[in-house]
Amino acid sequence: MRVRIFDTTLRDGEQTPGVALSPEQKLLIAKKLDALGVDAIEAGFPIVSDGERQAVKLIAHANLNAEICGLARTSKKDIDAIIDSDLKYVHTFIATSDIHLQYKLKLSREQALEKAIESVEYAKSHGLQVEFSAEDATRTDREFLKKVYAAVAKAGTDRVNIPDTVGYSTPQYFAEITKDTVQVTKLPVSVHCHNDFGLAVANSIAGLQAGAVCAHVTINGLGERAGNASLEELVMALQCLQFDKKWETNINTKLLYDTSRFVSNLVGIAVQPNKAIVGENAFGHESGIHTHGILNNPLTYEPISPELVGRTRWFQVGKHAGVHGMLAMLEDYGVKPNEEQTHQILDRVKAIGDQGKHVTDVELLSIASEIMGERGIKRIVQLTGFSVSTGIGTMPYAFVKINIDGKDYFATDYGVGPVDAALNAIQKITGKISEVRVKEYRLDSISGGSDALCEVTIKLEDAYGNKVSSKSVGEDIVTTSVQAMIDGINRVMLKKSLKESKVGS
Fold first, then answer.
1. Which residue among 138, 169, 214, 390 is least crowded, i.e. fewest CB within 10 A of its CB?
2. What mean pLDDT comes out for the span 196-222?
């Protein structure tokens, strides 16, 4: 069965506290969503502001394959804003639960019903495709909800949507009201589920199993409070889990991770590491038991192949590490310790883990170098000194000193800030030697207060296509950024040297 994917990242997703997008940023995300393969894009709420209307109009004229929709209350003014934005598709809504009617709208049930009918008729009279939502449907009296949906169906709406506005429903109840809605409307039914109790995807699936044909979703589950049903989780669940029927979507799943990162960076909301499908840890393994299983058959501890969603698996060494995972990491760099050396390296790794620390690839190689006594697996790049200068009325300036394979290099450079200046100076050196370039930089605060710890993630790539990601945690943003950069450079240069040695042999 084909499921229609209606993405509301640009409307409901933008209602995430702290998120505000310019028209140009919205257009960039819309193009990403279109490339991903979503069927419909809710571009925004045009009546809200001139900028919102501009954004919606930009997207409407972008010649995208997806249908472009705009949100409107059951008001002629709101619907006129849809028309003025050059849209042909409106998603109109009114609350129908008693708590909303009494405390928000100050309307009776009959008044709300009348407004719903009028808005649908008005939109249809202007040639619009109409999708109608009974806001807070899951807390609406069940018989009244059926009455509302039957009435708007008679008034001419093309689609109806069931919003679980505050994530209040269970899958069982959501399935029941979905069946009601399909029965009384005989129209295509959408589901729009929020995640207040962590049930948004489960409720969406329940609605689809009960006869709905479309799901409203957002990238990374963005949205108000706990967010919306996550596009990537729903799509992969439909594709990979066992159901009594086969589900299909138009989504190019190999673009899920890239789209997730793009949206995350643009809106400034980090994806939690343990988030399903797109979190950094979703295909990461440390436990020795798990890595052993993965190396023998990935399906032992991975329900799906990471490549299916544009990911790669990775291993972390720490106190839970086993021999097999550690050896796999070392082998990636051409390092093959004997049995005694292996146990010595593992013991050292576990001792570091017991201190609450993680061991990076480069640190693992350094430990191996000590124990094996081989100079060929040392740290290629070492930072031997750096300083920055910044202030009001002066351009940030950085000096760095780096040792690469025993030879010292110096560089200075400017930047828009001290971090930018320091990284620019480092790239002046490494650009000449190995053509390493920063592809992505991310800064996150991981504790509160003026002395907050920060986490810096840097993704690097060289001219040969070798890609790495490195992280560093510290109190000083500049120092932490420089350490992450140097760590990443070591990783990418080690990978390059290993490839060259394999080609040479």
1. 390
2. 98
Q: In what order do the strands lie in the sheet with 407-414?
A: 381-391, 394-404, 407-414
Report the first-to-last Cα separation within the chain, whole angstroms.
52
Q: Are residues 362 and 388 in the same domain?
A: no
Q: Does 444 lie in the same domain as 403?
A: yes
Q: Which two tokens stand for residue 425?
A: 């100076």
Residue type, 380: I
Count: domains in the chain: 3
Q: Domain limits at 418?
A: 381-504
pLDDT in the model for residue 503: 42
* Position 359 pLDDT exceeds 80: no
Q: Hey, is 183 helix, strand or coil? A: helix
In a domain, 277, yes or no: no
Amino acid at 166: V
Query: What global pTM score does this model have?
Result: 0.77
How many H-runs (helices) and E-runs (strands) does the chain carry? 16, 16
Same domain, residue pair 291 and 225:
no
Higher pLDDT: 319 or 381? It is 381
State how far the Cα of 91 lies from the Cα of 79, in Å rounded to an integer: 9
Residue 143 token pair: 């018989």
Beta strand residue intervals within 308-422, DSSP E = 314-315, 381-391, 394-404, 407-414
H/E element, 441: strand 437-445
Whether residues 70 and 98 share a domain: the answer is: yes
Strands, DSSP E only, in 194-334? 214-217, 284-285, 314-315
